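Two proteins were folded this term; both appear here.
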Amino acid sequence: QLDSYTKSYQNQKGMRTLEWCHNLGLVQLELELGGKEVSFSVSPPRAVTIWHFQEKEVRTVEELCDLMEAQPTTVRRHLSYWVSQGVLHENPTDTFTIVENINEADTVLTDVMVIYISYVD
């Protein structure tokens, strides 16, 4: 869809073109964690990172690099955000798993389900 818009823009504006910045903006996520809905406002790459855990509960940095077409340092940076939020856990090195116990109230995270995504400019 972005490609067709870019082509249309080029036809109207002559020699001008659009360069899309996919990592800018804000994504409003609502994750279902242990039966509770938890809201996050994150960058698009962070949203994509957690999105991949819907399909598979355990992911390696290498897998995510291939899926996201990104460098390992970039993927690790986005994963570390979700680790700091208590959503993911790293064990062993470069292998990330959905956390079973989110907090001391024994909220159990059995599955990551993205309920709602909205993109904000």
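Next, the second protein.
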Amino acid sequence: MERVLIGGGTGFIGRALRRALLQKGYGVIIISRKPSQGSMMSWDDIVVNGVPECKAVINLAGENILNPQHRWTEAFQKTVRDSRVETTGRLAKAIMRTPTRPQVFVCSSAVGVYTIIVEFFRYFFAFKQIVSIVV
């Protein structure tokens, strides 16, 4: 069975990708900050042991920029940037040390549909203004 290694496989896109790959018959290994199952590895495992033999490595890891628990400060911006750059760097270095390299290495750092978000906020703030006038 061919395997795919997914960094960020417990996130929004990663979970959907994992399901789709399993339905297609691929084995899936997830890299996570907090691995909890046999089909998961930690980022430290990747640094120490390298990338396991697999057909593809897909990195979707990264801090959620819309995390409501964080303000858009310089420190949080650094966290967001580092969460993408450092994980990609770790994977690239681990792949270079692997005797049998994957055929594919894909990275994606964000998923967004900005026009929908802009429209949402436009209507949200318009609604908020109407409510404040009425109340």
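The longest strand covers residues 27-32. Residues 74-97 form the longest helix (24 residues). These notes refer to the second protein only.
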